[in-house]
Write a structure and sequence with these properties.
Distance between the termini: 22 Å
CATH class of the largest domain: Mainly Alpha
Number of domains: 3
Number of helices: 16
Length: 484
């Protein structure tokens, strides 16, 4: 790999780290921010709006990168992200912070999409798996470094600096990108599909709003959530007809071949498994086993290590054995690791958690890396951005829908557990504040109620992983044929 390629890898890894760490570094700071800005009741919107705007902008950036080039599109996205970061750091109240986080998310949409597209453009098939593994491992690094960096900045400076720290790294990323990435594409006039972008954005907003409101109803009637989701689905149908008539559709439906559709479904489902692990394994480690957040992060670190290793090892196997064999093998490992999760109990040591996380990383690393390569290899340069963006969007939706469903399952099982003990009206979010209010509201029962919900989620992950494994058998091995 020459120096230009190395600098490109560095630039996209920095960009991906900026986008990924914003989801973890703020978790440490949000209690402090909420108190200082007097808006603890609004903290969920700080996360939700960032996710929402990044999801909305993902397919738009994918199409723009096909029309105007990856370098320019990613650079613009990083600039928007940095402006949002700077304004977040200057926020004087919670409403300003929420609005500027939405702007930050608009920039992050480019980072989450165009970085993977650049890898597909610049690197050969044998290099691509290794680089995709490096880029994917950034998420694991961000999940570990985020809380540490956030805590350090708050203790030594102030919460404002968790946003300001992005600026020098973002500028470095843009400089490396502009100096090292060379693109050649036909410059011509383009007709932007504004109507398609608006309809798709409204559809995503409606669906995600329905999901968020069902999880945090705040006394809102249930039908509001159902109507919002129904409206979103109706808008998706309208989006289909809009795109059929568009001269340059923002999502060309030609990219959804049989194989790409299967890959996107697998990506959506496996992303739900990933968010289930990312959210509920730390809850298990901290709330059930009683370890600190730092220990929890360290216990999950092996997953990031094995993720990177499998991306490199299994990535090299794609030209020899084909994507079908590699993906089936990866999903089999993921299913086995999920099947081990129900063995975790209230008295389990930390060793099995570390081992299971390590095994799981092999499954995630091999599958996500291979699926991304399959999507990018199935289309030509002019549609690679749109194809990658669609896959990224479905992964985001998989995580969003998954975490909402898992949250409902978790809370429902806690309520059911205490109902069986004769305690009604339990708020799953206020379990520890209710400790000792009755003879059955003991620490043991609180842990038992949570582990019952976590075990049901673990069973759900097994079912989802099994479905993913079955779908992988329908894939082909075209990449193996391509290099032989």
């Amino acid at each position: 790999m020459d120096s230009k390629k190395r600098n490109i890898v560095i630039s996209i890894m920095i960009a991906m780290f900026l986008g990924a760490v914003e989801g973890t570094i703020i978790t440490t700071a949000i209690p402090t921010i909420g108190k200082e800005l007097s808006g603890l009741e609004l903290i969920s919107w700080v996360f939700s709006l960032y996710l929402l705007t990044s999801a909305i902008s993902t397919p738009i950036y994918g199409k723009l990168s096909d029309l105007y080039g990856r370098k320019s599109t990613l650079s613009v996205g990083i600039v928007i992200f940095l402006i949002g970061s700077c304004l977040c750091g200057l926020s004087q109240n919670m409403y300003q912070l929420i609005g500027f986080r939405a702007l930050q998310g608009l920039g992050a949409g480019a980072i989450f999409t165009v970085t993977y597209t650049i890898v597909g453009d610049v690197f050969t098939l044998s290099e691509r798996a290794k680089v995709q593994g490096w880029v994917s491992s950034v998420w694991g690094i961000a999940s570990l470094a985020g809380p540490f960096v956030g805590g350090f900045l708050i203790d030594t400076l102030s919460w404002h600096w968790i946003f300001f720290i992005n600026i020098p790294f973002g500028i470095l990323c843009i400089v490396l990108l502009q100096r090292n990435l060379t693109e050649s594409f036909e410059k011509r006039k383009h007709k932007i599909d504004y109507l398609g972008a608006i309809v798709l954005s409204l559809a995503i907003i409606s669906i995600l709003n329905g999901i968020f409101s069902s999880e945090n109803s705040g006394g809102m009637p249930a039908y509001v959530s159902e109507l919002s989701i129904a409206l979103g689905l109706a808008l998706l149908v309208a989006f289909y007809f809009v795109e059929r008539k568009a001269g340059e559709p923002i999502v060309p439906f030609e990219i959804f071949t049989r194989i790409n559709t299967i890959v996107n479904v697998i990506s959506l489902l496996s992303s739900a498994v990933l968010i289930g692990i990312d959210v509920y394994m730390p809850i298990y480690i901290q709330n059930i086993l009683g370890y600190s957040p730092t220990i929890s992060g360290l216990a999950m670190a092996p997953m990031s290590i094995s993720w990177l290793l499998s991306s490199i090892i299994l990535g090299k196997a794609i030209p020899r054995y084909g994507e079908k064999v590699v993906t089936v093998f990866s999903m089999l490992i993921l299913l086995v690791s999920c099947a081990l999760l129900p063995t975790l109990g209230t008295e389990t040591s930390l060793i099995p958690v570390i081992i299971y996380s390590f095994i799981m990383g092999f499954g995630f690393g091999g599958s996500f890396t291979t699926l991304t390569i399959v999507v990018q290899s199935s289309v030509d340069y002019t549609r690679r951005g749109a194809a990658t963006a669609s896959n990224s969007l479905l992964r985001t939706l998989g995580q969003t829908i998954g975490v909402s469903i898992f949250g409902s399952i978790f809370n429902l099982n806690i309520v059911r557990y205490f109902s069986n003990l004769g305690i009604r009206g339990v708020d799953p979010n206020k379990l520890y504040s209710a400790l000792g209010t009755s003879e059955n509201m003991t620490l043991y029962n609180i842990k038992a109620s949570q582990i019952s919900g976590i075990h049901v989620i673990f069973l759900g992950l097994i079912i989802i992983a099994a479905v993913c494994l079955m779908l992988t058998f329908t894939l082909k091995s075209s990449l193996k044929e391509e290099v032989m």
